[in-house]
Task: structure prediction
Amino acid sequence: MKNDQSFEGIYQELQWRGLISLSTDEQKLEQALNNSSITFYCGFDPTAPSLHLGNLVQLLTMRRLQLAGHKPLCLVGGATGLIGDPKPNAERQLNTKETVAEWVNKLGVQTSRFLDFDGENKAQLVNNLDWTSELSAIDYLRDVGKYFRVGKMLSKDAVSARLNSDTGISYTEFSYQILQGYDFLELYRRYGCMMQTGGSDQWGNLTAGSDLIHYAEQQSVHLMATPLITNADGQKFGKSEGNAVWLDQEWTSAYAFYQFWLNVMDEDAIKLLKIFTFLTREEIETLEQELAEKPFLRSAQKTLAHQVTKIVHTEDIANKVRDVSQALFGSDELGDLDGEVLKSAAQALPNVDAGQVEDLPQALVATELVSSMGAARRAIAEGGVYVNNKKVDSEGIDRTQQLPGNVMIIRRGKKSLAAIVF
Result:
């Protein structure tokens, strides 16, 4: 991973990539990012055992800043994770201290894959429980709480939304912005941290920290917020019926992860290439031209899928997933493909356990490739059904045709795929 040297500085590259949605004084921020080396931080709360696509925006932005000579502090919120950032519509369910501690460790390992923890401007992993656990209730109220004005706290979007709802908001979640603001103050004091980054939906919490430093230390610091990633329809990107696209293979397989990027709409492809890859401006503009002239080739989506999968899951896995994806939708021989990737692909497709079906028509119906047994038999008789990319005319399941990973891929027509899992 490296930055594009065709830009005047990292500030201009971040602008071109669409990564600066909100910020403090633009001129001072540009000066700090282009002409000095500053320490900055971004926080990740352990509300799940894995980071997701939205977190990836922050991690890659941190990496771009580090490559430009700045020093990242990667904060995993062992304390704030016990409280939970207020959601606009409901109170969060509090996790146990043991669960949060376990997730802190997992997120720490995940974040370490994206940043360089060696060298002159090495990243550091910090946990806000280290300083918050030492803070008594009296100290919290006297030394931190006195700088916060309730009127301003009430104006935060998530807080005001909850106050106007039937659920209301607890003091626990109401105080979250104080804890996050205190993080910035502590990092300023301990490490000379001069900037915080985060998503634009976190702007209220970001300003809580900069305001606290202003009042407590009489110093000005920088804030930079990335935009929320939405698709061409304005829907939050990476969410489908409430399910995030996770960075951990146990939660989102590498195959499903690759397919997610492969299937983005033409209108979103170039924007996402800018945000989620380290391709240069020239390379992305070439793909943009190809997309405009030959959209049926889907060159932008294929490049996007491979590049992001390579960043998150390694180049070797990205190559294997790409090969499986191409083979499943083509006429290639499947027997030589990687078994683990084939297995994850089968699990991402509509699938049925081999023990639950006696023949191919039952498998076609169970995986909803057809609507009835009669339709299944007709599809086979008319030559429209394939097993492992080979046309079949028999209704039986030949168990000797199992692929690596103990699966069998069935296809109806050109694009309708499913799997039998043994």
In short: The longest helix spans residues 176-191. The longest strand covers residues 193-199.
